[in-house]
Write a structure and sequence with these properties.
The complex is a heterodimer. Chain A is of the alpha+beta class. In chain A, 60% of the residues lie in helices and 14% in strands. In chain A, α2 packs across α5. Chain A is elongated, with a radius of gyration of 16 Å. The N terminus of chain A is likely disordered. Classes of the chains: A alpha+beta, B alpha+beta.
């Protein structure tokens, strides 16, 4: 099998960011990309090669639902919305992430006497 | 190179498609790119450049669609369906490969499915009796006090022992006695027919758990000494004798006795051994008090809640206790309960296991061959795959595609396999050697089809995974960079192909070793001197039931003498003889215990022998008791070694004389002259008169050419006609003198109602070898098919290797390498594979030689000569397969390397 790409490693993280982006209001794929880029001061560039698979996966897992809606510019777009299960999942993931990053920070900030 | 075909090809988005994720995704992607372009325009990029830029930023659309699709299970299945269709399309583009692979797989799957049908029908499928797993045959284990050999298992049991088993054991719900009295003419129907008659005790039908389909079982009042004789008949007997008409209430006649038919068994029930008529044991006296008269067999049903093992343990304990109680008045030292199915199939089991194993090996060889073909194709399709990767197909996708392609192949192979198996099963049934029980019941049924499907799936999985994983190229860039050259190869794939060829050679060698060993066994069997004539004679088998008493006996031997005289009077006949136990399939092979006497009337009864106590054992021995007459020894070509044979004067009232076989003389009188010695053998026919030995004749292998000759004791048909009503008459002479119609007429003239079977002695001898010939033929077919496949596989690989090294060889030749050194290079590659495969194959064969137990004759399972032949044949085949590509290599023009 091919070695796991960096994208693969960050997969769990991407799911969390997508859920976060949808926590405010339903949004289409492009909007999610923009939102994450904005919030991260353009540090995080979401690859389309992973965004759409992630959305389809989250939908299959029941964390998001989707429907066609019309944008402000009168174009048809697929809007994704967080489900109740997705909200709970997001809370769990955030909690886990905070504990993990806290732990990693502790390790990194340890000064060696 | 073929145009690459994109597996995830365009597909019209049907509005009614419930899972049309593809159309949805395309729209989403289009929207995404538009938005990106709009943003770029807002940032000041010209519109046309913005669109291009947006599309570029999005990246490989195909890859996104691929990855997204992988996230959907339903779509995954849908895609696999598309992979299958794609696989079928690809295979259609290379029909030679596809046909070759499908036929190879069909052969392997077909052979193993056919043999599975046989194994399933003969060995595995339960017997057609209720709860048949509880049915057992009871065997006595008898000591061999006379020869000092180890105790032997015998299916024949004595009645007092059976009565004690019934009384002392609790693990059986019933123990039935049976005595198979063989084929006899039975009258009363539309015409007299030959049918097998079995005498059974009252427990029999309960034990078997089968009731008459019409009529009833025997009533208690019919099961008493002297009761009016009754009979139950088989369905097949009714059809033959009564043309399918009603039989219950009719009267049938066996010899002089009339039996009223009270029941007819359901179709298919003919236990034991094609019985046509069952008659009750109890109408005859129950007074068989001798524990050494072994006139019955016993079948029993293990009681509910008792395991066969427990019943066996109890029987064994009880029997050993009986031995302590009865001492040497019984020969039984122990007893065994053997499951009926096991007992019925014991003789066929080793051969069938071996043949099934051979079929599986052939199946494996077929699989390796197809794997090899697929790997070769994978090499040819590398660029196609590389292009697919470049346009965004995932590696997993390519693996899936190969698996799908394999699945198409094995599915077709399985279909062909079922057809092959259907033909093979029919061929097997027509070859029926008569040595395999229940073979007639074998059919290509659902379990067999299930086996074929299982084999196909296993093949698909095995072949597909190996081909997909081994065939995958780790480095895409290398492939593309290399795209112009034909010599591209991946070392790991080449190694995989070599491993496969080595495996093939090894598996083939295993099959060939089995073939060679069985073949040599067969040849040594043909070389065996059976001790009697095997050609140039005709055998008439007759059964003429008779009553008891001196008058009846006289009528019988006078009839036999008259018949022999009439046959001998046919012009050209060289001699006529008679035997009760004719070699190779005669009716009566009874064996018993005799005692040597110091004078002709020393022992008149068992009491006289018992008085000697343990000293009687020194006088005792085991031998076969054979009734012969006429010119038997001369006609059969059995040499007279000493003394004389029977003469006209050896009439019933003259002193009784006997002729013994060489083995008998050697056993009994290793260093004394047998002539003039006295033997008491009256337990065989109930006549207490002693014998004087007057001659010694050569040994014969009477059961089959492979059974070593045992000690035989011959008596004259007039003095001691024996119990059996069946006898055979041999007529020797040129074929023109032995016209079956003429002989049939002679028999009919003397006794109009007497059925007679006429066959040549060649046929009888042939039939004795047919089981072995059947096994040999099958394994030979497997061996040769394996050799052909392995040769093909090697040829394919070497050809491929030569193609890989075309440049190298061209350069070598340009630099002055001779034809010989190029040949050496290529043949050396083949030889290395052959050598490794041979070593592994020989080791595996030696490890598996246990499978040949009981199937070899006069050849050891490690016979060096057989192995030498096989090794030479295998290496020779591999070299031959390498020769053509090697010769082709020497003709490579040096300029080839410059292209």
């Amino acid at each position: 099998m091919a070695p796991k790409s960096r994208d693969d490693l960050l997969q769990g993280t991407l799911d969390m960011l997508v859920l976060k982006a949808l926590a405010l209001e339903p949004m289409h794929g492009w909007g999610i990309t923009e939102r994450i880029e904005q919030w991260s001061d353009r540090v995080l560039q979401v690859g389309q090669g992973t965004l759409y698979p992630a959305l389809y996966r989250l939908e299959r897992q029941g964390h998001v639902s989707s429907a066609w809606r019309t944008t402000e510019n009168n174009r048809r777009a697929r809007y994704y919305a967080l489900t109740a299960a997705g909200r709970r999942h997001f809370a769990r993931e955030c909690d886990y992430w905070r504990r993990l990053s806290h732990a990693i920070n502790l390790v990194l900030e340890t000064t060696i006497a | 190179m073929a145009r690459p075909e994109t597996p995830g090809g365009r597909r019209p988005a049907g509005p009614d498609d419930p899972v049309d994720h593809d159309a949805r995704l395309r729209e989403e992607i289009a929207f995404h790119i538009d938005q990106q372009a709009e943003r770029l325009v807002r940032q000041g990029v010209p519109p046309d450049r913005a669109r291009r830029e947006a599309r570029l930023r999005f990246g490989g659309v195909e890859g996104v669609r691929e990855a997204t699709r992988d996230e959907q299970r339903a779509a995954w299945l849908f895609d696999f369906g598309r992979d299958l269709r794609f696989g079928a399309r690809v295979l259609r583009r290379s029909p030679v490969f596809a046909v070759l692979a499908v036929l190879t797989l069909g052969l392997g799957i077909g052979a193993s499915t056919a043999l599975f049908s046989v194994v399933d029908g003969v060995l595995l499928r339960g017997l057609p009796y209720p709860d048949a797993g509880r049915l057992v045959r009871l065997y006595q284990v008898n000591d061999d006090g006379t020869t000092g050999g180890p105790p032997r298992q015998s299916s024949r049991v004595s009645e007092p022992n059976v009565l004690d088993w019934r009384r002392l054991t609790h693990g059986f719900s019933g123990i039935a006695e049976m005595a198979q009295w063989g084929d006899m003419p039975i009258a009363g129907g539309e015409q007299p027919v030959m049918a097998r008659r079995t005498v059974v005790s009252r427990e029999f039908f309960d034990v078997m758990g089968v009731a008459p389909a019409d009529g009833r079982v025997f009533r208690p009042e019919e099961l008493q000494e002297g009761a009016a004789p009754t009979a139950i008949v088989s369905h097949a007997f009714r059809n033959r004798a009564f043309a399918g008409g009603p039989v219950v209430g009719k009267t049938i006649r066996i010899g002089q006795t009339a039996y009223t038919v009270v029941g007819e068994m359901p179709p298919g029930f003919d236990y034991p051994g094609e019985t046509g008529v069952w008659t009750p044991r109890e109408i005859q006296a129950l007074g068989q008090q001798s524990r050494t008269a072994h006139n019955f067999q016993a079948v029993a049903r293990v009681a509910d809640g008792v395991s066969v093992r427990q019943a066996q343990a109890e029987l064994s304990a009880v029997s050993r206790q009986m031995r302590e109680e009865y001492g040497s008045t019984t020969w039984m030292v122990d007893a065994a309960a053997i499951p009926l199915l096991e007992q019925l199939t014991a003789t066929a089991r080793p051969a069938l296991n071996l043949l099934f194993g051979a079929a599986i090996v052939l199946f494996l060889i077929a699989c390796t061959n197809v794997t090899n073909l697929l790997l070769a194709r994978a090499a040819a399709r590398r660029h196609e795959q590389a292009l697919q990767l470049a346009v965004g197909a995932s590696r997993w996708r390519l693996v899936r595609q190969v698996v799908a392609e394999t699945l198409v192949l094995t599915a077709a192979g399985g279909l062909v396999g079922v057809l092959v198996a259907a033909g093979a099963v029919r061929a097997l049934l027509s070859l029926d050697p008569g040595s395999v029980p229940r073979l007639a019941d074998v059919a290509l049924n659902w379990p067999a089809v299930g086996f074929a499907i299982g084999a196909s799936l296993a093949a698909a999985l095995g072949i597909g995974l190996v081909a997909a994983l081994r065939g995958r190229d780790a480095d895409l860039r290398a492939v593309l960079a290399d795209a112009q050259r034909s010599s591209a190869s991946s070392p790991s794939r080449e190694r995989a192909r070599q491993v496969l060829v080595v495996a093939q050679v090894a598996l083939t060698l295993v099959l060939l070793a089995g073939t060679a060993l069985l073949g040599r066994s067969f040849l040594s069997l043909l070389g065996v001197e059976p001790g009697y004539r095997t050609a140039g004679a005709t055998v008439l088998d007759l059964v003429r039931p008779r009553g008891t008493g001196a008058e009846e006996m006289q009528r019988q031997w006078q009839f036999q003498t008259a018949l022999m005289d009439r046959l001998a009077a046919m012009p050209g006949v060289e001699g006529v003889g008679l035997a009760s136990g004719f070699p190779l399939g005669g009716a009566d092979y009874s064996t018993g215990r005799y005692y040597e006497m110091t004078r002709v009337d020393e022992f008149q009864s068992y009491a006289d022998i018992a008085r000697l106590g343990d000293r009687a054992l020194d006088r005792a021995g085991q031998a076969g008791f054979r009734v012969v007459g006429g010119d038997y020894f001369r006609v059969m070509g059995i040499p007279v070694l000493e003394g004389r044979t029977f003469e006209a004067g050896d009439l019933p009232d003259a002193p009784h004389v006997a002729v013994v076989s060489e083995a008998f003389a050697r056993d009994r009188w290793p260093d004394r002259d047998p002539i003039g010695r006295f033997i008491q053998f009256g337990n065989m026919d109930g006549d207490p008169r002693g014998f004087r030995v007057v001659g010694v004749v050569g040994d014969v292998r009477e059961l089959s050419p492979e059974t070593p000759p045992g000690p035989l004791f011959y008596v004259d048909y007039r003095q001691r006609p024996g119990h059996a009503s069946g006898f055979s008459i041999v007529v020797a002479g040129p074929e023109s003198a032995r016209q079956p119609q003429v002989m049939q007429r002679i028999v009919r003239d003397l006794d109009a109602g007497l059925p007679v079977t006429i066959h040549s002695i060649e046929d009888a001898f042939d039939a004795a070898l047919s089981g072995r010939r059947f096994n040999l033929l099958l394994i030979m077919v497997f061996g040769l098919a394996a050799l052909a496949l392995a040769t093909l596989g090697t040829y394919g690989l070497i050809t491929y290797l030569v193609a890989q090294r075309t440049r190298e060889i061209g350069i070598r030749m340009a630099l002055g390498a001779g034809t010989a050194s190029v040949m050496r290079l290529i043949l050396g590659a083949g030889l290395r594979l052959a050598a490794v495969g041979t070593v592994i194959g020989v080791a595996a064969s030696l490890g598996l030689s246990r499978l040949l137990d009981g199937l070899l004759f006069a050849v050891s399972a490690t016979d060096p000569a057989a192995y030498a032949i096989v090794i030479v044949a295998t290496i020779g085949a591999v070299l031959a397969a390498s020769l053509v590509p090697a010769l082709r290599a020497t003709r490579i023009p040096p300029t080839e390397s410059l292209r």
